[in-house]
Design goal:
The chain is of the alpha+beta class. The protein has two helices and three strands.
C-alpha cells in the first residue's frame, strides 16, 4: 500500500497507476489525512442475454 500527498500524486501519477494495475492500493492524503483510495476495478462478466425474451415473443398460429 502506498500513501502519498496530492503534490506527490500529481508528479508521479503514471507510476501510481502502474502500481494499481499490478494490484497494489494507493491512498492519497490531504494534510496527512487520507481521503482517496485508488484500486483496480475488477472486470465483472456480463450476463448472457441469450433466451432473455423467451416468454415474451411467440409465433401466432395465424401468422403462417
Amino acid at each position: 500500500m502506498e500513501i502519498g500527498n496530492i503534490h506527490k500524486t500529481k508528479t508521479l501519477l503514471s507510476a501510481l497507476i502502474k502500481m494499481v494495475l499490478e494490484g497494489q492500493t494507493v491512498i492519497i492524503a490531504n494534510n496527512n489525512k487520507p481521503f482517496i483510495e485508488l484500486k483496480k476495478i475488477e472486470d465483472t462478466p456480463k450476463p448472457s442475454l441469450f433466451g432473455a425474451l423467451k416468454n415474451y415473443i411467440w409465433e401466432a398460429d395465424s401468422c403462417w
